[in-house]
Amino acid sequence: MKSDQAVHYNIYYQQLNYFGYRIWLYDRYLAGLIGACQLKPGATVLDVGCGQGLFSYLFRKHGMAVQGIDISDVGILAAQRAYGDSGISFSVADIEDDMLSAQLGQFDCVFARGLSLYNRVDFPDNDEVTRKLLGFVKPGGFLMFLYYSNCSSKRSGSWRYHSWTELQHHFRHYPSARFYFSFKVDAYVFGQLAFSEPCTRINRLVSKWSRQGGDLICLVKKSFS
Ligand SMILES: C[S@@+](CC[C@H](N)C(=O)[O-])C[C@H]1O[C@@H](n2cnc3c(N)ncnc32)[C@H](O)[C@@H]1O
């Protein structure tokens, strides 16, 4: 039986480019993140909750071997239609399925942007999903966590805007974690420099006063021990 999430996203993804992404903007954004993690062409990437597949495609464009998974079959079909020819492997799968790690193995990078499993009130104290995702990361590889939020007290009905403090609290057990907040356009202008402490500080201030949303980001390098 399909989960509520899959049913919802199946409706959304009937619309082409449901989130209205602009490739020129996101390409530079992703390039900055790839640089921040020093991922090289040929690296393996698991895009968890890949939706209609744009980020999988952008990783592929940067020379990576990409596997995109999502619980929405409509999303996966759209991804296959749009980007299937570029050598990306897309499949319908639930990251919470215990059999999945045996099937997929481990990756140099696990990319989770806006993964709905993080849209929960107990996010600050519950790192169950993060631990699961890190199980798919090779030692020395990266978990890229990205989540749309804002730094003001503005609220959204169906989407929980996690705060900067909550982000840090969630990842407190991971000493390698680096934290950023990006509007994406900053990465378009400044490239990798956007993923720096000063840029993040400015973006957070702007978000607080303008109520403009952006991505909360945490990059975690998995230790070898
Ligand atoms: C807000 S969308 C983000 C899509 C894409 N990552 C992006 O940034 O545009 C959340 C996605 O997570 C997917 N998702 C939710 N639960 C999942 C699960 N257990 N396993 C895999 N994907 C899941 C949804 O189907 C949906 O496509």
If you consult CATH, what is the topology of the domain at 21-47 and 94-221?
Rossmann fold
The total beta strand count reads: 7
Helix content: 25-40%
Ligand species: S-adenosylmethionine
Q: In sequence order, what are the helices and strands, one letter per element?
A: HHEHEHEHEHEHEHHE
Strand order of the largest sheet: 3-2-1-4-5-7-6
Q: Mean of residue pLDDT?
A: 96
Notes on the structure:
The chain is an alpha/beta fold and 225 residues long. The protein has a domain at 21-47 and 94-221: Rossmann fold (3-Layer(aba) Sandwich). It is built from nine helices and seven strands; from the N terminus they run ααβαβαβαβαβαβααβ. It has helices at 4-12, 23-37, 54-61, 73-83, 100-104, 128-134, 164-170, 185-190, 197-210; strands at residues 44-48, 65-70, 89-92, 107-113, 137-149, 178-182, 214-221. A seven-stranded mixed beta sheet has the order 3-2-1-4-5-7-6, with helices on both faces. Strand 1 (44-48), helix 3 and strand 2 form a beta-alpha-beta unit. The radius of gyration is 16 Å and the shape is globular. The site of S-adenosylmethionine (SAM) has 21 residues, from helix 1 and strand 2.
